[in-house]
Amino acid sequence: MRLAHRLLISHALLTAALLGAAAFSVVAIVRMTSLLTEVREEQLGGVIKEEAVHQAAWAVEVATRHGLFACEHNAQGVPAAADTLRHRLANLDALLTLHGASTQPLLLRAAQGYQTYARHILAGNTCERLQNAALRNERLFLAEQLTDAWINTTLALHSAIRQREKRAHDIGSSAIAVGITLGGLAVVAAWAVARWVAQGVTRPLGQLSALAHRVGDGNFAPLPEVSGPLEIRNLWADLDRMRGRLSELDQLKDAFVASASHDLRTPLARLRTAIGLLADGTAGPLTAQQQRVVELARVACEREIRLVTALLDLTRVQAGKTVRRDEGCRLDDLIERAVEEVSELAEERGTELVVIAEGTTPPASLDAALVERSLVSLMTNAVRVSAPGQRVYVTRTLSPQGPDGRPGTWARVEVRDEGPGVPVDARPRVFEPFFTRAVGAANADGLGLGLPLAQRMMRALGGDVLLLENANPGARFALVLPLGRGVPATTTPETTARRSDR
Predict the structure, then answer these.
(1) Is the whole-model pTM more than 0.70?
(2) Which of 1.10.10, 1.20.140, 1.10.287, 1.10.60 would CATH assign to domain 220-321?
(3) pLDDT, tens digit, for every residue of 80-103?
(4) Left, alpha or beta for 387 (phi > 0: left; psi -120 to 50: alpha)?
C-alpha cells in the first residue's frame, strides 16, 4: 500500500466521523423545527379559533351591558343597543357553526349560554328582560364561565409549550451527547490512524536507518526485507543494491590488497636478506657512514615488512580464513615473543616495557600468529604514544569465566601506557581502520591498522580487544582470549615481572 493510500484512508475516516456528527446535528435541528411547527399549527391554531369564539361571546356580554345602561339612563338608545346585540349574536352563531366542533367544552357551553341568553333578550321586551334579576345573575355566571374557559385555554397552551420545550431540550441534550461521543471517537480514531500511519512509516525507516548504519560499518551481508509503504520498499531495494555494489567493491579492494601485499612480501624478504648480508660484512667491510646508511635501510625495510604482514593478516581476517589452531601453544610464550619484537622500537623511543604475569598459562589451542600479531599491535601502539622515559605495562591475568559469563579459562592481557590517553571524541572511532589520531599523541605514526586488526583477530578467536577507561596518565587496552573449557590454570602467589633492558 502506498503512503498516499494510507493518508487517504486516515483522512476519509476523519471526514466520515465529522459528516456523521454533522448529519446527527441536522436531524436534531429538523426535529426541533418540527416541534415548533406543531406548536404553531396545532396549539396556536386551536387557540386562535377559540379566541374568536371567546371574543364573539364576550362581544355579546359587552352588548348586553350597553343595552342595560341604555335602559337605565338613555331610553332612546335602547333600539340601537338591541340592534348591536342582534348583530353580535349573529356573529357568535356563525363562529359556533364554524368552530364549535373544535372548541373546548367549557368555552363552548359558555358561548352557547350567551347565545341562548341573547336570543331570550331579543325575543321580548329588551329592557324588561335585561333588568330581570334572574337573567342578570345568569349573565354574570356566563361571564365567569367564559373567563374560566379562557384561563383553561391559556393554561393548556402553556402546558403544551412546556411539553414541546422539554422534548426540544431532550433532543438538544441527545444531540450534544452524541456530538461529544462522536467527537471523542473522532479524536481516538484520529490518534489510532495517525499512530498506524506513523508506525507504518517510522518503523521501516528506523529499520532502514539501522541497515544503512550496518552497511556503513562495513557489514555487507544480505539485508532483511523491510515491510511498509511501497516507497519504503523501493528505498530498501535501492539500499540493498547499493549494499551489493559496495560488497563487490570491498571484495575487489581486499583482493587487490591481498595480491599487492603478497607480491610485495617476496621482494621485501629478499631485500631484508641483502641488507643483512651487507650489515654483517659478507660483501666486504663497511665504513661507519656506509654502516649508518645500511642501518637506515634495514629499519625502513623492517617497517615495510611489518606493514605488508599487517595487510595480509587483515585480508585473512576479513576473508574468514582466520583460525589455524596450534595445539599446546602457551600465551606467555607469545607475550614474550611479542615483547622481543617490540623491544627494538621501545629502545628507539626510550620507553621501558614492563611485563607482569600472575602464575602460568596452560597449554591451549590458539592461532599463534594472530595472537602474537594482536599483542604486537597493542604494544606497538602504546610505545608509539609514549614519551622517552615513560613505561608501558603489560599485565596478564587469568579468570575462570569470560567477560560475558561464559565458563572456561580466560586470559586477560592489559596494555597500559603513560601517554596522553585517548581523547573523548576519538573513543568511538578508536577501532576504525586507518584512523590514526585516536591515540591523541602528536608523535604517533603508523597507518591506523593495529587496533582494528587486533580486535578483529581476537573476535575471530572468540575473544575481544577492549578500550578501558583512561589511566592517570595514559590509555588502557585489554585483550581477552579463551584458553579452553575445563583447562585448569596454574597460579602461584608470586608475581613475575620482566623488563625490557635492551
Answers:
(1) no
(2) 1.10.287
(3) 888 898 898 899 888 888 887 878
(4) beta
